[in-house]
């Protein structure tokens, strides 16, 4: 069995964890939701809910991982011997596999569009032509499968190199690069005529939007923004020594995630308003709206390439953690990292095929009214994530010894026992209630 690794530095762990949290949704969805749900008021509410409901669960995953020094499955077996709690870890590994499979399809689209951007095949196209081009691209089975496999292969190459030489090394490069690219794009966006109107639209606080429904939407965004619930952070924190503060690291990750969403909005909305283009969220933003914007700017192709590279970095740093969470349990069985990474990677490639073909060959196949891609997304986002997060909160709050919790929470931390008591109250009572509301809303039982 290979010797178990540790993160090379505190910064490496925080950047890798932040990279895991900062996914595509933080850039192409959250800014749009913020702009249409109260602007600055949304971000104030989002910050409060993130810090008091989501971050406590992130700390809980950190506690499970570091105290057990085990992967997502063995961690629960070590901490609750003879119980069925390891089923929570198994569900997390299955969820991470499904998430990685359909996430890789989107990662593949980014790679495809990077090729299109470098070959100038999108230059001069109108918004309607770009929409048709996106539909044509995603429907092509050869392009969809090849690009998805390339994205998965990139993950295999990084994860197979190990925690320090692979994940940490790439995160230390990609995360600072992501922030630098954002600054470049924001400067360009803010220099456009009419850009200020976009900034006002994005950030002006409108507390009239803060209703019960908005609070529920914001809570859902806060919950999903850090992707807690699949025990991915259990795996990452299992490589952590006791010289790192768990609550301090969790707060850093949460604040970095929110900062990226703010930067994304400042890069996108000024340009959207300056060029009088209707804002959008999701794939339409990246593959239709943004190229339409940049086609109207001098050197627009260059800035679009920068944006695509930024999205690719965000996608990869998230998917590294998904693959690592599924590779670690295989390694615990005595299989080498390289072999485990290749085995799981090939399995994910097969698992990704139905999702990759959901926009073309399999577009007419529906299960419960959903395509394979939509079904995989629903299973993970609406069921596995909230269920996993709920039981992680229960496990840490009611099953683990109080002594262990205090030791992990206060180790190398400026947060003492008084803050610990607040965290324990949040994790035992407030977080589970919040998750329950999100879950009922996600499955349509709460409006």
From TrEMBL:
Domain of life of the organism encoding this protein: Bacteria
Name recorded for this polypeptide: Sodium(Na+)-dependent transporter SNF family protein
Species annotation: Listeria floridensis FSL S10-1187
PANTHER family to which the protein is assigned, alphabetical: TRANSPORTER
UniProt-listed CDD domains: SLC6sbd_Tyt1-Like
Principal subcellular localisation of the protein: membrane
PROSITE patterns: NA_NEUROTRAN_SYMP_3
Subcellular localization: Membrane
Membrane topology: Multi-pass membrane protein
Keywords attached to this entry: Membrane, Transmembrane, Transmembrane helix, Transport
Bilayer-spanning residue ranges: 12-30, 42-64, 85-115, 143-164, 176-203, 215-239, 251-277, 297-323, 344-367, 379-398, 419-446
């Amino acid at each position: 069995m290979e010797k178990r690794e540790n993160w090379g530095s505190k910064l490496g762990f925080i950047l890798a964890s932040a990279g895991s949290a900062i996914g595509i949704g933080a850039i192409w969805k959250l800014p749009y939701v913020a702009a249409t749900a109260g602007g600055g008021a949304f971000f104030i509410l989002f910050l409060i809910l993130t810090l008091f409901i989501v971050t406590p669960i992130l700390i809980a995953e950190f506690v499970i991982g570091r105290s057990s020094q085990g992967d997502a499955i063995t961690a629960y077996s070590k901490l609750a011997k003879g119980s069925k709690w390891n089923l929570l870890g198994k569900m997390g590994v299955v969820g991470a596999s499904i998430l990685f499979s359909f996430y890789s399809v989107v990662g593949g689209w980014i790679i495809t569009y990077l090729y299109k951007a470098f070959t100038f095949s999108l230059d001069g196209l109108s918004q309607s032509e770009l929409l048709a081009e996106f539909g044509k691209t995603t429907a092509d089975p050869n392009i969809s499968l090849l690009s998805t496999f390339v994205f998965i292969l990139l993950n295999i190459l990084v994860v197979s190199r190990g925690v320090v030489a692979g994940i940490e090394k790439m995160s230390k490069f990609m995360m600072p690069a992501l922030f630098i690219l954002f600054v470049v794009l924001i400067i360009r966006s803010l220099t456009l005529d009419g850009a200020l109107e976009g900034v006002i639209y994005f950030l002006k606080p409108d507390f009239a939007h803060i209703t019960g429904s908005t609070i529920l939407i914001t809570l859902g965004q806060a919950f999903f923004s850090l992707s807690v619930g699949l025990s991915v952070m259990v795996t990452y924190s299992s490589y952590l020594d006791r010289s790192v503060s768990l609550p301090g690291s969790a707060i850093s990750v949460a604040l970095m995630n929110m900062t990226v969403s703010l930067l994304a909005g400042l890069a996108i909305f000024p340009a959207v308003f300056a060029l009088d283009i209707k804002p959008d969220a999701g794939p339409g933003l990246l593959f239709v709206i943004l190229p339409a914007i940049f086609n109207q700017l001098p050197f627009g192709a260059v800035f679009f390439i920068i944006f695509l590279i930024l999205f690719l970095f965000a996608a990869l740093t998230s998917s590294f953690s998904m693959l690592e969470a599924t590779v670690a349990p295989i390694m615990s069985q005595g299989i080498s990292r390289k072999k485990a990474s290749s085995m799981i990677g090939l399995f994910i490639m097969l698992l990704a095929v139905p999702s990759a073909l959901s926009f073309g060959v399999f577009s007419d196949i529906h299960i419960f009214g959903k395509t394979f891609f939509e079904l995989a997304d629903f299973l993970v986002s609406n069921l596995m994530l909230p269920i996993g997060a709920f039981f992680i909160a229960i496990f840490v709050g009611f099953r683990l010894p109080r002594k262990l919790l205090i030791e992990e929470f206060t180790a190398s931390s400026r947060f003492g026992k008084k803050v610990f008591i607040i965290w324990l109250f949040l994790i035992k009572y407030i977080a589970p209630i919040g998750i329950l509301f999100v879950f009922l809303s996600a499955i349509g039982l709460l409006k």
